[in-house]
Specification:
Radius of gyration: 23 Å
Distance between the termini: 49 Å
CATH superfamily of the largest domain: CheC-like
CATH class of the largest domain: Alpha Beta
GO biological process, one term: chemotaxis
Keywords: Cell membrane, Cell projection, Chemotaxis, Cilium, Flagellar rotation, Flagellum, Membrane
Order of helices and strands: HEHEEHHEEEHHEHEEEH
Largest sheet: 6 strands, antiparallel
CATH architecture of the largest domain: 3-Layer(aba) Sandwich
Number of strands: 10
Number of domains: 2
Pfam families: FliMN_C
Number of helices: 8
Helix content: 25-40%
Subcellular location: Cell membrane
Family: Belongs to the FliN/MopA/SpaO family.
CATH topology of the largest domain: Chemotaxis protein chec
Length: 304
């Protein structure tokens, strides 16, 4: 497998994901988002990492399963992290990134991952994600401490929203993508189309992301709650009435609410407001489309 084949497959997968990424980010940020990208390959991961603008806000994870696992690094400009959080929660942007912003970045990733899993078939576990870390990468050693001499794909995603422009760097690598190696079988169309999906990958130990003496890894207490069932309910409105009025009601009685027709409905998780939405009909059944999400901080409270 050579660098051109890897770049070609990477671009195919970006094209497959582009519509989901654009819609997910536009919905989360409540503003139109446009995405472009540039892709290149390096045969020296140390050189590739040393060229990154570190320290920086990083999101690291592994995708795939077992032998098909790939390693990912996404590096975000501080201004994107600050603005994206402000757009989501409807507040003015802060001056400095803190733990709330990192939680917001994790929330953005999880929302996009969820939308991707619903929109794109994933028989090969391409969107199976493990070892997710969000934090500050101070140096290349925080990202990778293994061997060199294999191809690293680097994508520069150019996000544009109104008057804001951001360059977000995505690195993906496998120690099995040996630099200079050309797999003859990969010349066939069938093998080439699955080149990245079927590559054998050895597990890798990521560095620990932190910054200012703090480490932002998955909270084990939150991980323990991820399989807990939560009750979701949709609330039209609330009203207080007298017991005497309640006793007068019969079949055909009408209860008038203050909410106007067409206003969004409240979506509750464990009795707490989680989002707002509108009623839709799906195959003769009612559903609700989410139109507004609460902040990541408020959503975490629903787990309490």
């Amino acid at each position: 497998m050579n660098d051109k084949q890897l770049i070609g497959k990477y671009k195919e997968q970006v094209d497959e994901l582009r519509q989901v990424l654009t819609k997910s980010l536009s919905d989360l940020f409540q503003r139109p988002i446009m995405i472009g990208e540039e892709v290149k390959a390096h045969d020296d991961i140390e050189q590739s990492l040393s060229s990154l603008p570190l320290p920086g806000i990083a999101l690291m994870f592994q995708s795939g399963k077992e032998a098909n696992r790939l390693n990912h690094l996404i590096l975000f400009p501080d201004q994107f992290v600050l603005l994206s959080y402000a757009w989501m929660v409807g507040e003015e942007p802060a001056q400095q990134v803190d733990e709330n912003h990192l939680d917001g970045l994790r929330e953005i990733f999880n929302q996009i991952l969820g939308q991707t899993r619903m929109a794109i078939p994933d028989d090969n576990f391409r969107f199976h994600v493990e070892n997710l870390q969000v934090g500050v990468a101070e140096s290349p050693k925080d990202i990778y401490q293994g061997e060199n001499g294999f191809y690293v794909l680097q994508g520069i995603f150019k996000l544009q929203s109104e008057n804001e422009n951001f360059d977000i760097t995505h690195l993906v690598w496998s120690e099995q993508w040996t630099a200079g190696q050309i797999d003859e079988e990969a010349q066939s169309d069938e093998h080439s189309s699955a080149a990245i999906d079927n590559v054998a990958v050895e597990p890798v130990e990521f560095g620990s992301l932190g910054g200012n003496g703090r480490t932002y890894e998955n909270n084990p207490n939150i991980e323990m709650l991820l399989d807990v069932d939560l009750e979701i309910s949709v609330e039209l409105d609330r009203k207080s009435i007298l017991v005497s009025d309640l006793l007068k009601m019969g079949k055909g009685s009408i209860i008038e609410f203050n909410k106007s027709a067409g206003e969004p409905l409240d979506i509750l998780v464990n009795g707490r407001k989680f989002a707002e939405g509108e009623v839709v009909v799906i195959d003769d059944k009612f559903g609700i489309r989410i139109t507004q999400l609460m902040s990541p901080r408020e959503r975490l409270k629903t787990l309490a």
